[in-house]
Amino acid sequence: MADEARQVPTATDTRILRSDYRPPDYDIDAIELDVRIDTETEVRARLQVRRCEGADPEAPLWLDARELDLRALEVDGEAVSEARIRHEAEGFYVEQLPERFELTTRCIIKPEANTALEGFYASGPMYCTQCEAHGFSRITPYIDRPDVLARFRVRLSAERVRFPLLLANGDCVERGEEGEGLHFAVWEDPFAKPCYLFAMVAGDLAVVRDSYRTSEGRDIALEFYVDHGNEGLVDHAMGALKRAMRWDEETFGLAYDLDTYMVVAARAFNMGAMENKGLNIFNSALVLASPETATDATFDAITAVIAHEYFHNYTGNRVTCRDWFQLSLKEGLTVFRDQRFSEDVLGAEVQRIDQVRMLRAMQFPEDAGPTAHPVRPEAYKEVNNFYTATVYEKGAEIVRMLHTCIGEEAFREGLRRYLSVHDGTAATIEDFVNALAEASGVDLTPFLAWYGQAGTPRLSLTREWDAEAGCMRLRFSQHTPATPGQANKKPLPIPLRLRLLDGAGEPVALPEHPARIGEDMLLMEADTLTLDVPSDQPLLPVPLLGFSAPVIVESDFNALELQRIAVQERDAFARWDALQQMQARAHAALMRDDGTVLEPLLNTLQRIAANPPEDEALTAQLLAAPRSAWLWEQYPRVDPQRFVEALEQQKLAIARALCGPLSVWAQRQPVGDEQAGERALTVLALDYLVLIDADSTRALARQRTEATNMTLSLGALTALSQTHSSDLAVASASFYERWRSQPLVLDRWFAVSAAARHTDVEALRGLLAHEDFDWQNPNRMRAVAGSFARENLAHFHTEAGYTLFAEVLERLDGSNPQLAARMSRPLLGFARLEAPWADWQREAAATLRTKTRSVHLREMLDAALD
Ligand code: TRP
Ligand code: ZN
After folding, report:
1. Does the beta carbon of 274 lie inside 6 Å of ligand 1?
2. How many domains does the chain have?
3. Measured by CB atoms within 10 angstroms of the end CB, which terminus of the chain is less buried, N or C?
4. pLDDT tens-digit profile of 204-244?
5. Quick one: which atom of ligand 1 is closest to the CA of 312?
6. Which domain does 819 fall in, by range?
7. What is the pTM of this model?
């Protein structure tokens, strides 16, 4: 059913414009749902509808209805004649309505036929929902927009044996037997909410319970629902939830507002997790973990996502978005909140570097590519395509800049003001920024330009030393390159945390300056900024400490200066960034066949390895090779095969230069819970050492793949996967045998296999045909096709690689268009490729375009092909 309906291009191909926003003509005060859950599920809805003040009395009611089999429609108990209904592709109008009325509908939906995983769908032993952004109208006809808030009362009934568990948002107010093996549960959510926050779950799941006492002394029941057998894997997530609850009370004075907080782990899930009021639904990969089955990185991701969804309870749920263009209002703000939480519980320095690494690897490429869009977009065809690194991560950076400019206390005050003024309503980005401005007394309107302008600003820094006058002159200038549809860019306000180092590496105070807004902070507001510093010696500026703004710094530092920053500076981000610059220069030189530029990099890395910071996780970050996605961005056009070769040469050179300390770190077996930092360094050491063609290190790595600790085991397997050794074959086969019955670990095996250096297009076909491959499962799909396209550069960037990837997307588009569109990015980068790769990839994208059924994928491909 889903597939047929999508074959014809429908009216959904229209562009929705932010400027077209109009308040709704009708509002819904309350909804009662009566859902009889079965293979064919019957959904009866009773809506209390009211015409809004000021609306035209003749205005028809628009109801979104996507692929619904509508069996009945009544207004105030009377069937509505077909003459009063006007059908469109994604809903219908009802005409001639009174000012207030009760609208009832009856529909049939089939969860097991729902492969798009939007609306009500089957995942393993349960049926569950995903309603953001427009899934609710795949369940029942509704005004499916976030500025319509209603009170929900939900009655679920089902066969008790098949679906012993019946969950929905809020509190369970009644449950019991219905006879004939059926049972029911009634749920009431006391908070009015938009329908994208609706959730229901029916199935046979195990529950793990705990409780949390709020600062006000209320006891909250915490319940995690997981597949039977996985009860032992929720400790970490449960602990993270309790810490997040405490943190939001302590940091912002926000305590949880219902009696129960439920988290359901789903094996089939399109994204990371969903903040449905009181009933979060999570990708099981972001709930289930033990040191034996999950890596330290997964543990940290769980901490962040559990906190993220919890924090949405205020920033997103209590105050929601007026329309989907405001998405960053909840996502950027909530990412900022979860980042601050992770910094507090996991360490600020290492977290900040990870945040920037991720921003540079995901968001900078987006901002420089065909799908570049502002944090608050102006238009979309399919809103699911706008759940992007730009809206989330760049949005979080904007909130961070606001926080930087007004300080912690005013930010706290401003957030509290925003939440109290707009409680229970749907707000805009202006509402948020205004609340911060009012609390701080600072005019923040210039920052709104960050929400409207796409592209990453480039900040260049030049220096002049005037010995005679005893003056160091720094000149900053900013420039944002054009992006699709936005040719001319304005200057943006840029908070610039800056340190000046003297010859001995000691900081020198910043001089008085109108742009100075703090001890080490300047606010650049125009195109240029000049700073004259009286000094009897040349000073070394260290710009953008802590990555104080999401910009690209272009500086003329020489190798020695970068080395000084990397070795002497106290700001961890600045040290890491200086090393990244050296890495990029070394790579660029290798691309030109010039190996000499490696020397300063290797020398600096040796100095750091010989005298590492105390935090081993930080040491591992400093010594790590750069991410290819970021390195790629350094070139206007790339020859991918040369790119890969140069990176391999570079890693091998680093491995040789650091061989001594790496060998020591590689020998260790840190398995304690508190030893994540040590593990990071051990895994890094293995990752480099296997490149040196020595049997001893590869045998050591193979041994480590047998470790009971998953960070070590998977780290060693990933290291070996860069080689084509018999050790890899043996280790991979035994890893597979050990974990074939654990889907989440098997996903990791698939991902490593797809990204492995020797996995060519034929081998990838083998993985797609593997008995454990599953086209319907997003995690498995991402593990195989996603890892291949993002990590296996040598084989993806071939004519056959592009073609196969396009074929995968074509097939996926027929079942799960949202996922197909999200996974399509690697195929959209042809404008930045050298010939013949550019032509091959464009050809693959163009061919796919002719076969695409969904608006989702069409919108992505068109952005690149037009
Ligand atoms: N709002 C969710 C979050 O950021 C993400 C989300 C949006 C989502 N759309 C989704 C998750 C669709 C799963 C499926 O927390
Ligand atoms: Zn979110």
Report:
1. yes
2. 2
3. C
4. 999 999 999 999 999 999 999 999 999 999 999 999 999 99
5. 15
6. 740-866
7. 0.98
